[in-house]
Automatic annotation (TrEMBL):
Origin species: Flavobacterium profundi
Annotated protein name in UniProt: Patatin
Motif DGA/G per UniProt: ranges: 193-195
Superkingdom in the source lineage: Bacteria
Family affiliation: Belongs to the patatin family.
SUPFAM superfamilies found in the cross-reference section: FabD/lysophospholipase-like (SSF52151)
Amino acid sequence: MAKKIRVLSLDGGGIRGIITAVVLKYIQEQLQRIDNPNAKIGDYFDLVAGSSTGGLLTAILLFPDNTKSAKFSVEAALDLYAKKGDSIFNVSFWEEIINPFGLFNEKISQRNLERQLKEVFGDLKLNELIKPCLITTYDINQRKSKFFCSHEAYTPLENFYVRDVCRATSAAPTYFEPAKIKSLYDQEFTLIDGGVYANNPAMCAYAEARKIPFSKVLHDTQKIDYPDINDMIIVSIGTGEVLKPYTFEKFENAGKIKWISPLIDILLSANAETVNYHLSKMYESLGPRNKRNYYRLMPQLRNASPEMDDTSKKNIYELIQAGLYFIDQNRKTLNEIAKKLVKYK
């Protein structure tokens, strides 16, 4: 029997990636229950895509152990956010004085982020990740999207240190400076967060999967090469739905500065919603069985902050609670996903 291609897509959202990790942790626990007590999410997907915080999660989930299987469980990713999030997003008192609210410079120093990425990933290279991946960035010098794909990193020209890839996909405008990184061939790129065009990278993941000879890349003759939509299971996870309204009265005479923050919020949400619309309609056109193979998991933020850099203990607690509430309300769907991941392992 041919095995469907299992695709995982992870939205951007800064510290709100905690919600994604909580949802993935539950799915991983179901995999451990029904298939393997040592199951790790990275071993149950054939392609993982991520933007910004989702790109960072992608790299953690696909980090290799000595046997070329996934090294880290989802708990490790959750631990990274909960324990190191504050040092990554920390804004010192002095920086706050000279750069109030990020108006004159990027809001957060990249030094803490780069130090943590070096500590987590060391000298791991893109082509050493255990499965095909797609991590989004945008090249502000060449003015075009730049995708990092482990399955295409055959040569030093397309190969990079994973820590640099994560630095680039995390370079959200107004939060971090652009990332200036080099390939192993020494070609230089100036990159920002791919969330500016694909905060929900699920459609990018679908397009990428269409051109991959999975049986060869994964060394599994039962996997389908160059799959079409009938051959894919797509699980797309968001970092919390932002429902903050913007009234006409508040923006009737708003200038550029007043529009900056709302505009970023609106663009990120609109992108995610549009991708979901397209994929939903594509899957609705399929037969009764295959149309149920697209899952968009978007928890409500509930009491958590929509801010991507709120690393207060209270907000981290609320983000975890938002994820747990979603699990409680969607247990049947999440259990169904786990069963399908095992079926096409």
